[in-house]
Amino acid sequence: MKKPTYSGKCACGAVSYTVQAAAIGVIDYRRTDGEKTHEHPMLAVEREHLSVNSEEALCWEDVSSEGRQGVCRRCNARLFRYPNHSNKLLIAVGTLDGRQYLHEYLRRPQD
Prior knowledge:
Blueprint: E1 5-9, E2 16-20, E3 25-33, E4 36-46, E5 50-52, E6 58-64, E7 67-72, E8 78-83, E9 88-92, H1 102-107
Antiparallel strand pairs: 1-2, 2-5, 3-4, 4-9, 6-7, 7-8, 8-9
């Protein structure tokens, strides 16, 4: 059985990526900046399946004691979250090409 392929890129196109593996699912990721809380859907995959086509344009930043984020050096788009002590990678669904993730999101239990 062929594994699904997800692909995407940042807003300016400097960082593009592919993931050739089944998604674990879509989660609602919450982060707090001071008094503001931000929530957005992220596609969870095994990190080893990520292939970044332009590593020089990608910057990994420590964002908290909880993990790191992958950001485009040119347009500052936040593409990935990599929690510490985990082999899971979270991909911002807004960076995915098309609507590949939608079936995963709709399949999950609703709140």
